[in-house]
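Lecture notes, unit on binding sites. The following record was shown on slide 14. It pairs a sequence with NAI.
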Amino acid sequence: MEGKDPVRTELQGEIALVTVDNPPVNALAHGVRAGLVAAIEASEGDPRVKAVVIRAAGRTFPAGADIREFGQPPRDPWLPAVCNRIEACTKPVVAALHGTALGGGLEVALGAHYRIALPSARVGLPEVTLGILPGAGGTQRTPRIAGTAAALDLMLSGKPVGAAHALAIGLIDEIAEGDLTEAALAYAARLVAEGAGPRPTRDRTEGLADVEAARAGIAAARAKVEKEMPHLVAPIRIVSCVEATLDLPFEEGLDRERELFGECVVSDQSVALRHAFFAERRAARVPGLEGVVPREIAAAGVIGGGTMGAGIAVALLQSGLPVTMIERDAESLARGQAAVRAVFDRAVERGRMTAETREQHLRQFEGATDYAALAPVDLAIEAVFEEMEVKREVLGQLDAVLRPGAIIASNTSYLDLDALAAMTSRPADVVGLHFFSPANVMRLLEVVVGAGTAPEVVAAGFALARRLGKVAVRAGVCEGFIGNRMLATYRQAADYMMLDGASPYEIDAALQLFGFAMGPFQVTDLAGGDIGWARRKRLAPTRDPARRYVRVADLLCERGWFGQKTGRGFYLYEKGARRGTPDPEVLAIIEAERAAAGVTPRSFSPEEIVARYLAAMVNEGARLLDEGIALRPSDIDVVKLMGYGFPRHRGGPMKWADLEGLPGVLENLRNFAAAGDAWLWEPAPLLERLVAEGRDLDSLND
Ligand code: 3HC
Ligand code: NAI
């Protein structure tokens, strides 16, 4: 990423204008760091220079340290030394911020003596999202200006803030009117004229004035972190670093920061979180699509205004696309349209959307029961009932009315996309766009590529995802694609554990302890047990009678216990409650099923529950890779992280397997297979191959 000359200096009157130029995001790679130090030293030694402005070319002020350098041997100068050198400059240094001044970028700016920013600039310390903490003085300098509370907010949330907020908390001094460079040069000239010298952040104390309040805030933050994220490495250390600003002189505070940063950066969590960062971006690179021009989408149709159709319509409208919703009758249409309106109304009520924006979206939103209304659209996404016959009728209608070249997308969860495509006269235009619920919130989109899908249509799916702010992952055709097919397998593992002796409550608890927000039985209750039930009934005729079948979920559904929405499922729910309590009647049903199956229940430790659940997940993922359904292990990780609540600090199932050690995972699979249900546990050939060659899954990520 290092360009030829990543830092250049030019003299503008009495001001040295230092420009960082390291596309795409001006990450603070070695060349940039060395260049900044050289520029400061040259400016200091040049009698013509009275002040320095540091700015960046291209789209942003440095967006942080170069994440690719973590885990490699450090190269001098380190970023903390760069920030210290800037701060020690004997002439005033102004940082001119635009774009996203994040992490090390903001730390460089805090090393400077004064900061000016465009109104559109955003600043933040997102290190926590990568499992680390600001390691170039950010934990010590931010509180000295903005106070410990604001500093903790920035560092624990990792969320960037806008220029106005940054000004309010003192992190920047001025907002630029007009051209940033001109404004920064004028600011520097003014400082020179006023005789304002350097103003090192390390010497500032205004943020630490109210020590008592700061101590109370830090104690509260510590308690919150210990309660809500006890398993995370970085947040608690961030609190300790901020506390050090009250207890230690600046230099010792920096040492403390360095020590705790070092502990974070070598942790598996940080490795996993950095993997997740790059995995999301890698997913957009699909072999064969380089240079393919996506079909243009300027207007969209959504067929079905239920849970998914309404959410998809909201997502499309929010991206600025006009949307026409088709429903089967006027009443269903009114319901679908009301659902869309309700989402916007809630957003306005909560202050997340202006009333004007809502009206803008609604003006672009039409409804019809006649498919003829779809004649002008470039993309139609069907989200009708998950039944082949219903889809057949809908696809037939779409085929009849859509213009040639318009894209026909299906949101099907499980059905064979090639069979759906064959129902039309134009399989090349058919693609799966598998959204996740709620579709306007969840950022994952599986782009399901059929045997005949045209590359420009696939590219259009990826372009649409970008437009919607979503991450697209390519998937091939099979029952359930990537995410749901894996889900079916590890749910099976959970069901077998339940039949063999673990209660659903023990299973959920073990997986929560691992880091999932919810266990599989809680998820079933939340989503509604009837969804899986319908699928099991559909698959019943083709079920292999030689495989054990666990009937517990069916028995609950037969009683009408569909989960939260009916007040009971695997758990009992007080009216309106989101958290359930264990249900003795469910345990009795499980007991009876064990007896009927001739099972002598045994106990499962939380470790074994996790080992089995994860092994099933990894094994199915490896099968998907073998079959070419998923392109690479990191794509699978993205699907599970973004669509299925896999804990991000574990990096996804495939990264977890690498960190755990692939030989151990394989060994587990072999042992589980030997003990029974071999069809489920039979190791995927890919795992055997990789272990035999001494490789890991990550070696397949490119
Ligand atoms: N290091 C290395 N590469 C980076 C990078 C970084 N800090 N930030 C972005 N990139 C790369 C991306 O991988 C991507 O590469 P690709 O084109 O080969 O896939 C390219 O730059 C463009 O990035 P995006 O696709 O994400 O572009 P967007 O415009 O959507 O987003 C962004 C820009 C908001 C800056 C986003 O990239 C981002 O959030 N970056 C990470 C910011 C961050 O976490 N900074 C803190 C780093 S840790 C640190 O500074 C430690 C210090 O305290 C010591
Ligand atoms: P839903 O039952 O909430 O909505 C389906 C809608 O389609 C209903 O409003 C119905 O009136 C309408 N419809 C039925 N036949 C129609 C026809 N011939 N013409 C026009 N409209 C018709 O179902 P949901 O949950 O929204 O699912 C829709 C699709 O999305 C299914 O294929 C499902 O597998 C898939 N899906 C569902 C997810 C979920 O979490 N609910 C997640 C991802 C995909």
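Take-home: The radius of gyration is 28 Å.
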